[in-house]
Design brief:
Layout lengths: L4 H10 L9 H17 L4 E21 L3 E3 L1 E3 L11 E7 L15 E3 L6 H10 L3 E6 L18 H4 L6 E5 H9 L4 E22 L4 E11 L9 H20 L4 E8 L7 H9 L7 E7 L8 E7 L2 H14 L3 E5 L5 H7 L4 E7 L19 H19 L12 H10 L2 H12 L1
Parallel strand pairs: 4-5, 5-6, 6-7, 9-10, 9-11, 11-14, 12-13
Antiparallel strand pairs: 1-2, 1-8, 3-7, 4-8, 8-10, 12-14
Helix pairs in contact: 1-6, 1-10, 2-6, 6-10, 7-9
Bound molecules: zinc ion.
The site of zinc ion (ZN) has 6 residues, from helix 6.
Length: 427
C-alpha cells in the first residue's frame, strides 16, 4: 500500500471545524474518525473522561483612572470569580515578572507579558496580587480580525492558590500602558462546570510480540475560534494513514492508535489514558506522536524525549533516506510529554512553519496554508521511522528517560517549584 496524501487531505477537510475540549463538535470529530477507522476494517473505541471548565456569567474590565474606557476581556477557564459587583484596584504592568517587578503588588491587578510558569505564579500569589491579565495576539490586533485566546488555569499553578485571571488583546493592553492606566474595575463571575471529552482508540495486535506495545498519538481537539487543521487535524489524519498502512502490513509488535481529546487544555486526553491504562504501561515501549503538519512552507522536525542514542538513530535514518529532518532531544508541549513523564520514551514528528507561514491557535489556522504534498512528507518520515522500530528483531530503545529530560519534564509539569518549596520548608 502506498501512502495516499490526497486521502489524508480529504479527511482533514472533513474534520476541519472548530472542535474544542468537551464540545459536541469534538465528539462529532471523534465520530468521523471512528467512521474512517471502520472503513479501514478496524474497530475503534471511545473512552470518555471529565474536563473541569467554567461557564461565564459576567465579565468586564474598565479603566477608571486616569481615563475611562472599557475593554473586551476573556476570563481563564477554571479561574475564580471576583465578588459580585467587581473590584476596583490599582493596575500595574509587571513586564516579565522579575523580582524588581514584584515589589508592592498587594491587592493590585497586574498585566504580565506571558502566562506565568509555576515558579512565577507562586511568587505572584505570595505577593498578594488581586488578579492578573495576560495578552494574546500582537500590538497590531484589530477587533474584527483577531480573537482573544481562551486560556485555562493549570493545576501546576493553582496548587498555590487561585486569583481571577483574564486574557486581553495585546493592542488593548498596549493602549492601557501607553496611556498610563493606573486603576481598573474588574468583574468576573463564572461557574465551575464539567464537560465530557473522548479519546479514540484502535489496537492492532502484534503477530509475534503481542505484549510489547508501541502507540501512535495525535490530538484531534482544537482551540476556540480555530479550525485547527495545522494543529492538529494534520497529525490526526497522518496517524490514520499509518493505521491503514499497518492494517495491511501487520506489525510484529502490538500497535495502538490513539486520537486524544482535550490536549489543548492541558494534555487531558493523554493524562486520562495513562491514568486508566496504568497496568498496560509496563508493556508500553514507545509513544510516537504527530503534532502539527501539512504546512506548505515548512520544515520537518523530530523531538525526542528519550536517550541520545535514539536522536542519533533518527538522524542517521534521515540521512540514509534523504529526509531533510532536524532532530533534537527535547520535550514538546503535547501528549508525548505526558507519556515521557510516565517513563515511556516518546518522539514527536511535526512540520513546523517559518514565522508567518502557518498559524496555530488562531482563526487563521485554515486549509489555505496546507497541502497534501506537505502532509505526505511528515507521513513518510513517521512511517519509515516507525516501521523500522515496530518490526525490529530486537527492540533497540531502552525504556529510560535520561536525567536531563527528567529535569525538563519536572520544569514543564511544575514539579520544580514544588521541589524548591519542600527544600525551603526543611530549612
Ligand atoms: Zn497541537
Amino acid at each position: 500500500m502506498l501512502i495516499n496524501s490526497q486521502r489524508e487531505f480529504e479527511l482533514l477537510k472533513k474534520i476541519g471545524f472548530i472542535r474544542t475540549s468537551g464540545s459536541e463538535e469534538e465528539l462529532r470529530a471523534a465520530n468521523i474518525l471512528l467512521e474512517e477507522i471502520s472503513l479501514i476494517g478496524c474497530k475503534g473505541d471511545l473512552e470518555d473522561f471529565k474536563v473541569p471548565t467554567s461557564k461565564i456569567i459576567k465579565t468586564s474590565l474598565k479603566v477608571v483612572e486616569p481615563y475611562e474606557k472599557e475593554y473586551e476581556i476573556t476570563p481563564y477557564n477554571c479561574s475564580v470569580s471576583t465578588p459580585e459587583g467587581g473590584i476596583t484596584t490599582d493596575f500595574v504592568y509587571i513586564e516579565d515578572g522579575l523580582d524588581a517587578n514584584l515589589v508592592d503588588l498587594k491587592g493590585k491587578f497586574v498585566l504580565i507579558n506571558m502566562g506565568p510558569d509555576p515558579k512565577l505564579y507562586k511568587k505572584l500569589i505570595e505577593a498578594g496580587i488581586a488578579g492578573y491579565i495576560t495578552m494574546s495576539g500582537t500590538a497590531m490586533d484589530e477587533e474584527d480580525k483577531t480573537d482573544i485566546t481562551v486560556a485555562r488555569m493549570r493545576e501546576k499553578n493553582t496548587q498555590y492558590g487561585k486569583v481571577p485571571a483574564i486574557n486581553m488583546r495585546m493592542k488593548d493592553c498596549f493602549h492601557m500602558v501607553q496611556n498610563k492606566a493606573s486603576k481598573v474595575k474588574v468583574e468576573l463571575i463564572t461557574e465551575d462546570i464539567e464537560l465530557t471529552s473522548h479519546n479514540v482508540i484502535v489496537t492492532l495486535e502484534g503477530t509475534k510480540y503481542p505484549n510489547e506495545i508501541i502507540s501512535f498519538g495525535a490530538h484531534y481537539d482544537s482551540v476556540p475560534f480555530s479550525t485547527g487543521v495545522y494543529d492538529n487535524g494534520a497529525g490526526s489524519v497522518i496517524i490514520m494513514e499509518l493505521l491503514r498502512y499497518f492494517k495491511e502490513n501487520p506489525p510484529i509488535r502490538t500497535l495502538k492508535f490513539i486520537w486524544y481529546g482535550s490536549e489543548e487544555v492541558g494534555l487531558l486526553g493523554s493524562k486520562a489514558y495513562l491514568a486508566v491504562h496504568e497496568e498496560e504501561l509496563k508493556n508500553h515501549l514507545l509513544m510516537i506522536n504527530v503534532d502539527v503538519g501539512g504546512s506548505i512552507l515548512g520544515k520537518e522536525m523530530a523531538l525526542v524525549t528519550a536517550e541520545q542514542s535514539l536522536v542519533n538513530y533518527i538522524e542517521h535514518m534521515a540521512k540514509i533516506k534523504g529526509f531533510p529532518l532536524k532532530v533534537e532531544q527535547s520535550i514538546y508541549s503535547s501528549d508525548s510529554t505526558a507519556f515521557a513523564d510516565s517513563g515511556i520514551p516518546s518522539v514527536t514528528f511535526c512540520r513546523f512553519a517559518p514565522r508567518g507561514g502557518a498559524f496555530i491557535h488562531t482563526r487563521d489556522d485554515v486549509m489555505d496554508f496546507l497541502s497534501a504534498d506537505a502532509l505526505e512528507k511528515t507521513t513518510i518520515i513517521t512511517k519509515e521511522f516507525s516501521e523500522s522500530i515496530v518490526n525490529s528483531v530486537v527492540f533497540p530503545i531502552e525504556k529510560k528517560i535520561p536525567d536531563n529530560m527528567k529535569n525538563d519534564l519536572d520544569r514543564y509539569f511544575g514539579k520544580e517549584a514544588k521541589k524548591e518549596d519542600s527544600v525551603e520548608n526543611k530549612k
